[in-house]
Every structure is written in C-alpha cells, then in structure tokens.
Amino acid sequence: MNCPACKNPMVILELNQVEIDYCTACKGIWLDNGELDLIFTNADQKEIAKSFSVKNDFDEIKRRCPNCKKKMDKVEFENTGIIIDKCVDDHGVWFDNGELKSILISAEEHNSRIIQMLKELFGE
To answer: What range does the domain containing 18 cover?
Structure first.
C-alpha cells in the first residue's frame, strides 16, 4: 500500500497485536477499518463516528484513500482543532506526522474514552 501523502510504499508495523501501515518517508500512519475493529468495539466505533466533523472550508489538498483511491474528507477530531483525513467510504483514517501525537497530548485536556484508548495503544 502506498502512502496517501508522499506516495512511497508503507511498511506494516505491529503495535499491541494491531497492524498499522506506517510511512517511513513522511512518518504518517494509516489505520484501516480492520485495524480499527481490533482496537474498538462496535459501540466505540459509533462514538468515533460522532467524534469527526467534516471541514469543508479547509484549504489543504484532499488526499486519496490508499484503498479505494477516492478523495478523503478533512475532518476535525473531537473538537481538538486537529484535522485528519478520513475515507468517505470508511476504509480508514490517515494521520500526518505529528497529528496522532497531538491527539494523544490533547487527552490531557479532552478526557474522552476514544482518546484514552488511542493513548493506551500508541503510548505517549
């Protein structure tokens, strides 16, 4: 699978028995729905879906989903001000370098279950 940001091939890493796609060139992370299924229960996934709000007024170029190649939505994660890329067909989410870390840091301010689970999975 190629990186949606820089188009380089991504490598598969295993963290806590969950495989993630990682770009060694730009340091982005792709979590597809299969990986999200392993991390979150169905109830958690419904909460995740509510935690994204689409940002149509965002100037950054829309990236393409590495699975279906459709342009992904720019979405804000849980009112944190952090904008990530989400496949319109729910194939997964893309975190540019630093975005996941920013979400984990925001766990101190936004004490939600989803952010806490991401923090447990990926650490500080």
So the answer is: 11-122
